[in-house]
Design a protein that fits this description.
The chain is α+β, with helices and mostly antiparallel strands. It has helices at about 15-30, 65-80, 120-130, 145-150, and strands spanning about 1-10, 30-35, 40-45, 55-65, 95-100, 105, 110-115, 160. It has a domain at about 1-115: Alpha-Beta Plaits (2-Layer Sandwich), CATH 3.30.70.560. Helix 3 (about 120-130) packs antiparallel against helix 4. The longest helix is centred in the N-terminal third of the chain and has 14 residues, at about 15-30.
Length: about 170
């Protein structure tokens, strides 16, 4: 069994519900079990900024799949929840990004592990630090908490949603 960490986000439609549904679908899959889920975060878009804020969260999975198989599952969940091909960094109904799988390091056309830009993104690191602050990035050789604190004021605005906004779901 592997430990995988994912970032889940959305900024179109029922963003909160889609993020939570993606988590539920992962947890119900025969080869996965959600061990931890962060709170929900409202985050500003990076890159293409003329779009709505995102809802983001992080999950830790126990998984009996190879990383490529897990990527395929994530892509199938995105399609099931209504994701369409869109512009890079553009608005989306749902987005599942595979961040880390154990200490895997790979750079293949379909998958790079660890996620290539995770160390630059507060919307990834803040939720991930909530559930796995001491997890070490295998290439940066720093914990997630250290990477988050190293961003200083960069990496985008991130705020925790209150219970009312998140539907009281933890």
């Amino acid at each position: 069994m592997s430990r995988a960490h994912l970032s889940i986000g959305a900024n179109l439609g029922a963003a909160i519900e889609n993020c939570l549904r993606a988590t539920d679908v992962l947890d119900r899959h025969v080869a996965c079990r959600v061990l931890k889920r962060s709170r929900l975060y409202r985050t500003e878009p990076l890159g293409k900024v003329d779009q709505p804020d995102f809802i983001n969260l992080a999950v830790e999975l126990e998984c009996a799949m190879e990383p490529i198989e897990l990527l395929a599952l994530c892509q199938a969940i995105e399609l099931e929840l209504g994701r369409k091909d869109g512009s890079r960094w553009g608005p989306r109904v749902i987005d599942l990004d595979l961040l880390l799988v154990d200490d895997w390091v790979m750079d293949e056309p379909e998958l790079t592990l660890p996620h290539a830009r995770m160390c630059e993104r507060r919307f990834v690191l803040a939720p991930l630090a909530e559930i796995a602050p001491d997890l070490r990035h295998p290439l940066a050789d720093k914990t997630i908490s250290e990477l988050l604190h190293g961003l200083g004021v960069g990496g985008g605005r991130v705020e925790v949603l209150n219970d009312l906004e998140s539907g009281g779901v933890r």
